Amino acid sequence: MTKTRTTAAVLILVIAAALLLAVRFGSVSLSTGDVVDALTGRGDPIKRDIVVGLRLPRALLGALVGGGLGLAGATFQALLRNPLAEPYILGISGGAAAAAVTVLALGLVSAGSWVLPAAAFGGALLAILLVFRVASVTDRSFDVRILLLAGVVVGAFFSAMIALWFALSEASTVRSAVLWMMGSLAGADWGAVVTAAAYTFPAGMVLVALARPLDLLAIGEETATYLGANVEQVKRLAFGMASLITAAGVAVAGVIGFVGLIVPHAVRLVVGSGHRALLPLSFLAGSAFLLLADVVARLVIAPAEIPIGVVTAFTGVPIFLVLLRGSLR
Amino acid sequence: MKLGTDQLTVQYSGAVRPALHGVTLSIPAGGLTAVLGPNGSGKSTLLRALLGVIAPSAGTATVEERNVRAWDRRELARMVGVVPQSETIAFPITVREMVAMGRFPHLGPLRAEVGRDREAVDKALERCHIGDLRNRQMTTLSGGELQRVRIARALAQEPRALALDEPTASLDLRHEMSIMRLLRGWTDGGITVLLITHQLNLAARFADRIILLDRGRVATEGTPSEVFRREVMEHVYGWPVHVGQDPVTGSLRVVPLG
User: Fold this and answer.
1) What domains lie within chain B, and their CATH numbers?
2) Among B76, B94, B101, beta carbon nearest to A216
3) What does pTM read for this prediction?
4) Across the interface, which of B75, B84, B110 has its CB nearest the CB of A223?
5) Which domains does chain A have, with CATH numbers?
6) What ipTM was assigned to the predicted interfaces of this complex?
């Protein structure tokens, strides 16, 4: 338990430092004093605009989405009893991307900045419902093996749909679609922060309350039932809540890979597999990771940006391979 | 702790014949009841249906005279501990964490472990002689250690009855005997034990009552001397046997011939 507290404290410090870093640096560098002035409503109005209007919401969105992905990833791994599971494994990203590409290809995005996230969220929900319906074999039972298969198949269907749109669209549309699919926090505003928070926090709290039943689920459904867990209810709730968090994240930031896969593994190596520690710490670690990744994405070739998914993969893959080798030893 | 079934029938979808066919049984409180029968005779299905993890196609299973499907799972888990045949652990956990899962029916999702829970876990570890393994990873255990951890987990539930599905399968004779002695010790402490096993002679020696299943039906039930008769055994197992008394233990024993 002390290990859990220490890890939590370290991660919170990292998040705080990363937040400061994210708010201070960019195409214009600011001092900590500038940031404090901006937050208290004093100082240069341009700097205030940069801090309050641009960098702070972007940093907070990164923290929320990254945390959500870490938490959802840990949940999907427990639910599917599969260490390779990640938030997008059940077709949520496919549904969101297909809907996003559809509105881009049809030119509907000109109607307003809300169209793309709304469409992505709708597509994600559609994928979730579809997969859920398929896996609800009967009224009573919800089969996670079928869930996995359904997710992969639904994802493949949406990929085909995306490919079809690409074939029919102009090069510029394809480019913006591809950039969206790689994920970005560039569109962050306070509306996006509020949306992400509104889904992530309540759903996250439900998941943390399911931590102990998820521990039981990890040793098998039959055993979990004998130990007193309401397995069917736990599976449905965990799937629903983790999916909602993922859908909200995809809607506001696109598809950001690797966070939901490696963060839970890294946390497990430090504090073990107990979900009461794993779930909240995966949220914190995901927050820290995505925040830092976004700082890198913005600064490496500033003033231009590289896609954040590239940063998470470039750093995530080596970390994952090192962890994997370590765990095999 | 009384368990029973009434005309219990379980038909798996796609199966030619029901796994259980109109089984009516009463397992009395106290003592050790062994369920025997050839492969595919319905032993594990009986356990699953008796404890409500599969729904019967007809008939009922009852725990303390109440339909098992009507029990709240947590409430039931405080009454009956189960050690299923096998389980695969998806993520690394320690022995202590595994045994502590037995406290779930008392803790629920939210309440934190208190002294009483820790005592129950310690006592369960103690009684299964695995106190020194508490910080070991489950993946590093031998077969005998693993079984004792899973039994300790069921004990940590502080149940009034314990059901075990082939707990001594693939164990050497020392581990087999130590587990049987543990089970016997608990029946003396008032816990009802239901044991599913393939080991006829172990059942003859340790069980108070035996239920012999044959292709989803009860072939016969009763005390070991009532069940262990040559013609019954030969009919159920389809193999010539000799039934005699073991000169050392005095219990009946079945020796396959040929």
Assistant:
1) 3-256 (3.40.50.300)
2) B101
3) 0.91
4) B84
5) 2-328 (1.10.3470.10)
6) 0.94
